[in-house]
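thought: fold this chain, then report.
action: predict
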Amino acid sequence: MKLKLKIVGLKKSVQGRIMITGIHTTPIYIEGIGDDKKESIKKFLYKINFGVSDEWAETECMTTAAHGSTHVIDGEADVIFNKYGLFIYDLVIDKAHKFLKQLDIKNLKLTLNNCGVEKCKNCTELWCSKYTKGMYQAEHNHLDNGELFSFVYFAKYDPSKDADLTFVKDMSNAIQKGFLLENSPNTLPEELREHPVFCNHVTLDNIKEGDLVIFPSYLDHQVEEQKHDGPRITLAGNLFKIINDEKCNAVYEDMVERLFTFLYKMHIKKRVTN
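observation:
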């Protein structure tokens, strides 16, 4: 889908002479939270079990996400979040709706639940990641099942030492023609190599502990290698459109699926033993 760029904020006479505007500019929301909430989240993090991220490709960190680690019991973190961390849901949703208001997006209500049911407590997309020396996360985005926005909260973070969150700009076609490559006729002159307009990796400036960053889920991003012991700890998750307020049937469907899987395995086992 192609959209026309509408130039706003300049008088017609000025537009005819000179202007600087943006193309493909993506807004990102950043806001620090209060000290009381920061301390509550830090205390909450000690109650959660982390596992090695053996389910995420080219990534080495510790996570509470069952989709990221086989060492994490599916749903265990959700139980802890529901018992001790419900205020985190409210905090993220409040900031996300402020973001929508600034973007002039109306009549869209968001939830952390991938089922689209606002009050569901079983389908929340929220997890923690921990990085110690040598750990990192590969380039990825959060598009999988209807995600609209994603977020990262910097729960334990020293900007002078800890690894950066880096957003990746797709310049693959330009790179195929030698752009950004050494000894290429299309490589950049030295004066432009560090300018953000010509970089394919952009790091957010001035991020500090206690900041919440919200961005569209399609944006590719990564965590650079952690250079010191840390730990660097973040909360991350996804936001979905509220579809309805009906009771979520995802748990029932999951139970049925597990039952059929169990019966199938028993059937195969019976056939083999007979």
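thought: worth noting. Helices lie at 12-15, 35-45, 76-84, 86-102, 172-176, 250-273.
final: tokens above.
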